[in-house]
Amino acid sequence: MPYLTNYSFRQLTNKIELKDFGKIDLDTFKEHIYNNDYLFYFFNQLDLKNLIKQKFLLDSTDYEMFVYREVPERKDNLTYVLELKGKVKYHLDLNCKNLNKGFKNFFIPEQIVRLQSEDPNKHIELVKAIREWFTINDYTVEKYEQGILTNEILTKAFNNYFPAKFGIEKIFISSGGEANQFQWYHSLSTSSVQVEYQFDYDDFLDKVIDLIKRREYLTSSKTMQNLSKYDYLVQKEDCEIIDLITSNINKGYLKDVSINFIDNYGLENLRNFWTNHHKLKMEAFYLLSDYIKWNYNLKEKDFDQFFLERFNLECCQTCKIEIGSNRVNLRSIL
């Protein structure tokens, strides 16, 4: 049966839409996500649809209820040495070495990163150069984890080549030991969603109560409660915020908000409010996501392999090789 990491499960959720599924109201939220009125008001429709997709992915075998959502190809942001590319993977072997290895990579040094805004063409040239340099010298994650490579070794090698060739600054080498050197290596754990999942329901309830109290304090008026749904605008330009809020007030979509609200309250204060609300909302979102995984028994979920591939996931190459090898060994025994 196919296994997914938490990352793969999140990506699958992003790739699907529910067919003929309309607006999620309070009753739908309480029926399918969690039976609590207060939590419903943390979220906008996009958040609610994401949560309900997680629920149906785990609680339904009717795959015809899902339709594929075109998601842009994962774009290489040029932040890491090892290029980010390829499809999201699923695994066929619970013991696959890649299942729980997480994300491992090397950071591009700041001397190169800052060129992204100062000189974009030179930035791209240097990213390509450092990637080729890592490949030619066989600098790998495995060697770093084995202690063959260290931050100091990489920094000295970088300083001996890149500054003279490309006219950039050297990386500072501290005399305070390895811990004070530039940290090349970056690692994030990625647990398998199929392994034993630890969930404390009493702790969950305590956190829910705390979040509700904190949000009530933050959104102490009907005006702020209604504006909280627009926290996704926090990174938008001033003119875009003003235009959308004003338009929605005039159209009657945004109730209990004065047309002069932004002038009186101030955009900076509004951004701060949205930032604080978004933090609370994301705490609640991940809390409910964990609850859904526990309540609908994610660790026992038998994902359909054809369904996963239909939604643009692919089998881990290591699993393919291992499964193929086991079949060959079985034939030789028979």
Structural notes for this entry:
With 334 residues, the protein is mainly alpha-helical. 53% of the residues lie in helices and 5% in strands. The protein has helices at 6-15, 26-32, 37-40, 45-59, 110-113, 115-118, 120-136, 141-145, 151-166, 201-218, 222-227, 238-251, 261-265, 267-295, 305-310, 317-333; strands at residues 16-18, 66-68, 89-90, 103-106, 185-188, 314-315. The strands form 3 sheets. A two-stranded antiparallel ribbon has the order 1-2. The relative contact order is 0.16. Mean pLDDT is 86; it is low at 327-334.
Spans where pLDDT lies below 50 across 5 or more residues: 327-334
- Going across the major beta sheet, what is the strand order? 1-2
Question: Number of DSSP strands?
Answer: 6
Shape: globular
SSE class: mainly alpha
What portion of residues is helical? Answer: 40-55%
Q: What's the average pLDDT?
A: 86
**What's the tally of helices?**
16
Order of helices and strands: HEHHHEEEHHHHHEHHHHHHEH
Radius of gyration: 25 Å
| Ends distance | 24 Å
Beta-strand share of residues:
5-15%
Largest sheet: 2 strands, antiparallel
